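Q: My labmate handed me this sequence with no annotations at all. I'd like to see what the chain might look like in three dimensions before we decide whether it's worth expressing. Could you predict it?
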Amino acid sequence: MALPTRITAIEISAERDRRTYHSRIVEPEASTPQAKARGNLYILLNLSGTGTGQARLSRQILNTIQAIYYEQMAGPITHSLTQAILSAHSLVRQSSGAASQTVWRGSVACLVVRGRDLFICHAGPAMSFVAHPDTVDMFPAEIPEATTFLGDKTAPDIEFFQTKLRGDARVILTEAHWLDHIPIRAMAAMAATPDMEASIGYLRDIAEKTQLASLVIDIETKPEAWSHIPGLEEKPGGTEDLATAEQAPSIGEGPAPSYPAVEKPSRLTAPRRRPPVSVPRSVTMPSGRPRSLQPSASAPASHATERQTASIEQARPVGPAKVAEESPRPEQSSSAAPEAKRRRSLWRRESAKRGVARPQKRSRWAVAAALVIPLVTALLVGAVYWQRGMARTRQFNELLD
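A: Here is what I predict for the chain of 401 residues:
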């Protein structure tokens, strides 16, 4: 379901008939009691007859319907609309009998938007088309053949229809005589087309030729958020919250299902760092040279471990104080000389193999690809939207033909 966020209403009538009041748009403030109890009211009036003062009478009829509808705050919406239409019928009857050779007849179509509910009221030969995102509804389902109008000796039949918003919608309030000049499918296409300007332009052309009037209401919506989500211990089908009961799935008779206990997830902790690998102490070369690798006698290291340890040792040079502190004893210097020479040569070879990684230059092809790919993507998207627009235009022209 959806809730209305913006409503646009446009009257369609002949240019030379602008002085006559055909419609009334009433949108109270959302915080007022009238808006909460009665919502927005949209009225279309088609009045015809012989006599003078048609504009004044039309304004009085619209004022009467608006006043009585919003004055009766108690009771259902259909009751308030019925009283308003009957009062308008009495007003037309009095105006017709006030002077000789004055006869007025009319029809009324009303739309009430309250939350996600749409209420439609017809008196006389009136019709309404409601376009949802997936279908177009026509009210009534058959073309009305009303024999009574507002102002006749007997009051006209009052019909009510109700539907709900399922997304963005468009409502066209009109008179049954429109179908004498435009087919039903074309009128449904005018309600369903996303191009509102094209729809209004087409209806204006017919209104100029026929002096008929209609009212187009475009409703933009947003998804409705649940005001209450039942817990595990509650029954979704209760009567405390009607909106929740409508949206909840039906549950069969029987004991309430049991749900397993859900344990609260423990707090995530960062993995502990591995303890640093202890590097065996090696004999430090004189003259402050970096320490080289001294393989352990109990566990000889592999070539990869040897390179990793050598890099660690190279990153931490030993100062002169450290060299003096860890210098070998005099009795070990004679026996460690060949071993020190071998370690020195090994350290030079490893240093030459490692080298210093030079920063690689950015490839020109990567820069060109970064510029060309977004441009090609934008062209493809534009082509797809252009093809969709052409397809909608062809479909719209086929519906009109």
